[in-house]
Write a structure and sequence with these properties.
The structure holds two protein chains of two kinds. By secondary structure, chain A is mainly beta. Helices cover about 5% and strands about 45% of the residues of chain A. In chain A, β5 and β6 form a beta hairpin. Classes of the chains: A mainly beta, B alpha+beta.
Chain lengths: ~230, ~270
């Protein structure tokens, strides 16, 4: 019969057998099978159901979470050598000598939508020293005018149109320039300069663009009388 | 206007009893949508069905979804319209899941492409990817709204800390809350460019380089057939849905020279 060995700071504090058909509860309250008297442990913290096809650990919506091998779990089928962490205590899942391991369970679940609150709470617990997602700086491409314009144009739009017509985001003069000569599209992989139409093609670093090219920082772009530098800002 | 050749196909796969995916193709209005529903007991089917029906009414001009339009400086007017249709679909699914006991908790992904003039707008919510294929290269132009992708974007190390169950979770979906934010990509397209929209029943089993290969070397219809067969041969764990589109002609490029000469001559 497998058992759970309770440890605190390398010292064993008891062994609890897991007999099939029983349920073991873990918590601070005296009513639990395994009582851990520590404020980091919830009154009813977790349980292990000893079923015919394995040993299922379930976190009972505890305040500080139940971890298995360093990862937070809501439920988990115990496997040989698993270490459950609850507060500063550990419970080691141990098989008796020569005992066959419990069957593997496929934990892949169907696609589910995240409970945002649960997710945030989980992240706070398992990655406390990492910045929150919102703190990640958004990078933005900027066109800095070298010739034919002044200042900068921030590439805020998903698709920026450049050409002779006033309806464009960046207007450029020149006989050879088409109504809309080029566009810059923001894709997940970066900013792309695209040729649209006209007799003269836009140039990036002096090279004519016949369809589309990924812009790199400090690339020089020429369209008609316009010369710009592509810059990335945090 | 650009000319597009397209095909779409859906298949239940090898393991699931029902098909919770849905797709919508309108070559005339150039609207293409894949929706992957979720929520047990037929509710997933209901959710993805509502999504494609909303796009159907939108394409036919029966519902312009203007009440759901939110002005956004980053988007063109056409992209704003497409996003308003996604928000409308979200509202419809959300309302249904609130009012019908059997549909509680249902949701869907959406991957949509709409073309206007010589540009393509791709918008998505969830994990149904939109790929862009040009000259044999493939690029993901949608944003994966999964916990795994979002965490990896911050720091790949974080993935190791995540419990298994979160890796399969969507961080955004249609119909789970009152409003939803779609990610949008708007880009120029050229003759010969191809786009692929699919459910994860395909993208989990077929790698992007294989997709690029099949899309580049087959007609849209043949490619869809091959994709479904390939996913089924590899286990068909989930429903499989795919739309392939190919740009046959870009209108604005035609007659450019003539227009230029006419302008020179002052005609």
């Amino acid at each position: 019969m497998p058992s759970l060995i309770l440890q605190f700071k390398d010292t064993e504090h008891g062994e609890f057998p897991l007999s099939t058909g029983s349920s073991i509860t873990i918590g601070r309250r005296e009513t639990n099978t395994i009582v851990i008297d520590n404020l980091a442990v919830s009154g009813n913290h977790a349980k292990v159901d000893c079923l015919d096809d394995g040993y299922l650990l379930t976190d009972l919506k505890s305040k500080n979470g139940t971890f298995v091998n360093g990862k937070i779990v809501s439920s988990h089928w115990l496997q040989k050598g698993d270490v459950i962490s609850i507060g500063k205590h550990s419970l080691i899942f141990k098989l008796a000598e020569g005992e066959a391991p419990p069957p593997a369970h496929d934990m892949t679940e169907e696609t589910m939508v995240l409970d945002t609150e649960e997710y945030r709470a989980m992240l706070d617990r398992s990655t406390p020293n990492m910045p929150a997602q919102s703190e990640k700086a958004e990078r933005m491409g900027v066109l800095s005018f070298v010739k034919g314009g002044e200042g900068e144009y921030e590439l805020k739009k998903k698709l920026v149109k450049i050409g002779k017509d006033d309806s464009n985001d960046v207007v450029v003069g020149g006989l050879m320039v088409a109504k809309t000569a080029a566009t810059i599209s923001k894709r997940p992989t970066g900013y792309y300069l695209n040729f649209v139409e006209g007799m003269s093609k836009p140039k990036v670093n002096g090279k004519a663009v016949k369809d589309s090219v990924l812009l790199k920082e400090f690339d020089t772009i020429e369209i008609g009388s316009l010369r710009m530098e592509f810059i990335i800002k945090e | 206007m650009i000319e597009i050749e397209s095909a779409g196909l859906t298949d239940v796969g090898q393991k699931r009893e029902g098909n919770e995916d849905a797709f919508f193709v309108d070559e005339k209005q150039q609207i293409f949508v894949v929706a992957d529903g979720m929520g047990g007991h037929l509710a997933g089917e209901v959710a993805s069905g509502i999504v494609v029906d909303t796009f159907g009414r939108f394409a036919r001009g029966e519902d312009d979804c203007t009440e759901f339009a939110v002005p956004d400086d980053a988007l063109s007017a056409e992209a704003t319209r497409l996003v308003s249709c996604i928000r409308k679909a979200n509202h419809e699914v959300f309302t249904k899941s609130r009012s019908d006991e059997n549909c509680r908790g249902m949701g869907s992904t959406v991957a949509a492409i709409h073309s206007t003039g010589d540009t393509i707008i791709a918008a998505n919510v969830g994990d149904s990817p939109i790929y862009f294929v040009r000259d044999g290269d493939i690029e993901l132009i949608s944003v994966m709204h999964t916990v795994a992708a979002e965490q990896a974007a911050i720091d790949p190390e974080r993935l190791k800390l995540l419990p298994e169950k979160f890796l399969h979770m969507l961080s955004r979906a249609i119909g789970v809350s009152e409003d939803v934010q779609a990610d949008v990509c708007e880009t120029q397209c050229f003759k010969g460019d191809s786009f692929l929209l699919c459910s994860d029943g395909l993208s989990n089993l077929v790698a992007p380089n294989e997709m690029a290969d099949i899309v580049s070397n087959n007609s849209a219809e043949e490619a869809c057939r091959k994709f479904v067969d390939m996913a089924n041969e590899r286990g068909g764990d989930d429903n499989i849905t795919v739309i392939v589109l190919r740009v046959k002609e870009v209108g604005s490029r035609k007659g450019t020279f003539r227009r230029f000469v006419m302008r020179l001559l002052g005609l």
